[in-house]
Amino acid sequence: MTTAARPTWDTAKGGRGKGEGDLSALSKQYSSRDLPSHTKLKHSDDEDDTAELLAELQRIKKERAQEEAKKEREKKEEEEKIRMENIMTGNPLLNTQNNFKVKRRWDDDVVFKNCAKGEDGKKKEQHFINDTLRSEFHKKFMQKYVK
């Protein structure tokens, strides 16, 4: 194992020139990031903007109240419309729509419907067999491709 990862027991020594031995002495150089910035604060007059802010607040409250009233009105109109529609179509004697057709499936008109091989009007019970030679799949496969 190398000694590169060991801690330093003796602190680093500076050069032997004048002022180089003391590393804690202040340097004459400094970074621009160390300089103070934002040395002046902005002061605003509170009385100038209060009237404008109150007027803006009142305007926003008024707009929100109008928007809420509009939403409430639209909601009531929609509920009334749904209620009237339910009243009109609720009674089948008053409902004049002639849609008494029997609904058919999309595949009712196929030619060979319910013509599965070996179907005798009863479904065979499917159960799992943990033997590949006696499984239903293997039996069907052998009948189809070997015989």
TrEMBL record:
InterPro entries with a match to the protein in the record: Cwf_Cwc_15
Region feature (Disordered): 1-49
Matches recorded under Pfam families: Cwf_Cwc_15
GO molecular function, one term: RNA binding
Gene Ontology cellular component list: catalytic step 2 spliceosome
Signal peptide: none
Entry's Gene Ontology BP terms: mRNA cis splicing, via spliceosome
Superkingdom: Eukaryota
Coiled-coil regions listed in the entry: 50-82
Assigned keywords, A-Z: Coiled coil, mRNA processing, mRNA splicing
Protein family membership: Belongs to the CWC15 family.
Protein name per Swiss-Prot or TrEMBL: Cwf15/Cwc15 cell cycle control protein
